[in-house]
């Protein structure tokens, strides 16, 4: 397996693949999607700054449509899903070159498809459980998003208190948007109530950490003890 760090402007990723050809395909896909987004923002700057869903122009590129759709479902701004949407473009490019395995970690927002079992570590900053567990992700041909938002780790804007909120979905943009939305409002006391928001959503599972408290919802992958290496976490 090849592991390569790749940064392009503010997009900072780790790419996993079996072949250098697929690594290059991932880069090309992400750069193309990011360039499409940047060009679109020249004609619709509000798309970049809004904390609410935004109606897009009719000729918007695919990445913008994914982001707008995710924002509408999760009731957040479109940029809440930018990391996973760019990663999604890279993963689709890998598939188009014939890859059977690919993973892109864009700052904690993971998009993948796999012909093997994967272990995805759970990192939640200074929470007691952080770095001690991992999800077991079974082989699957369908693209999956495993996206995490945090109010205590990283530079992203959050209005909440959670150390981490991880959402699973076969629509990576929506996993990313919902992770942000839930992280903004989630507390141990309102967890059950907030999960009702996901009733008709694209999210299949949620794992949340706030200090010593852990909340689980939906069809979560098996979780096992693990020693998560901080050095493997994608950082800016």
List keywords for this structure.
236 residues; 3-stranded antiparallel beta sheet; 11 strands
Q: Count every helix, treating DSSP H or I runs of 4 or more residues as helices.
A: 6
End-to-end span in angstroms? 23 Å
Radius of gyration: 17 Å
**Total strand segments:** 11
Largest sheet geometry: 8 strands, antiparallel
Write the element-wise H/E pattern from the N-terminal end onward.
EEHHHHEEEEEEHHEEE
Secondary-structure-derived class: alpha+beta
Strand content: 25-35%
Mean pLDDT across all amino acids: 95
Helix content: 25-40%
Query: Order of strands across the widest beta sheet?
Result: 1-2-3-4-7-8-9-10
Q: Low-confidence stretches at least 5 residues in length (pLDDT < 50)? A: none
**Cα shape:** globular
Characterization of the model:
The protein has 6 helices and 11 strands. It is an alpha+beta fold. Helix 3 runs parallel beside helix 5 and helix 4 (82-96) packs antiparallel against helix 5. The longest helix has 22 residues, at 20-41. The radius of gyration is 17 Å and the shape is globular. It starts with a strand and ends in an 11-residue tail after the last strand. The mean pLDDT is 95.
């Amino acid at each position: 397996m090849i592991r390569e760090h790749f940064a392009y402007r503010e997009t900072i990723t780790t790419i996993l693949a079996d072949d250098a050809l697929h690594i290059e395909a991932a880069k090309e896909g992400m750069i193309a999607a990011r360039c499409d987004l940047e060009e679109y923002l020249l004609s619709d700057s509000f798309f970049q700054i809004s904390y609410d869903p935004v109606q897009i122009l009719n000729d918007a590129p695919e990445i913008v449509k994914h982001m707008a759709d995710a924002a509408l479902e999760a009731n957040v701004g479109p940029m809440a899903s930018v990391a996973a949407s760019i990663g999604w473009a890279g993963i689709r490019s890998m598939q188009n070159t014939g890859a059977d395995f690919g993973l892109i970690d864009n700052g904690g927002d993971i998009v993948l498809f796999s012909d093997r079992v994967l272990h995805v570590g759970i990192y939640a900053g200074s929470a007691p459980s952080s770095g001690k567990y991992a999800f077991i992700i079974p082989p699957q041909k369908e693209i999956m998003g495993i996206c995490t938002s945090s109010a205590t780790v990283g530079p992203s804007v959050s209005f909440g208190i959670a150390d981490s909120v991880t959402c699973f979905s076969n629509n990576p943009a929506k996993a990313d948007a919902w992770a942000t939305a839930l992280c903004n409002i989630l507390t141990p006391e309102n967890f059950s109530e907030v999960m009702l928001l996901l009733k008709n959503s694209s999210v299949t599972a949620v794992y949340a950490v706030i200090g010593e408290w852990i909340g689980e919802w939906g069809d979560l992958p098996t979780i096992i003890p693990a020693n998560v290496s901080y050095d493997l976490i994608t950082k800016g």
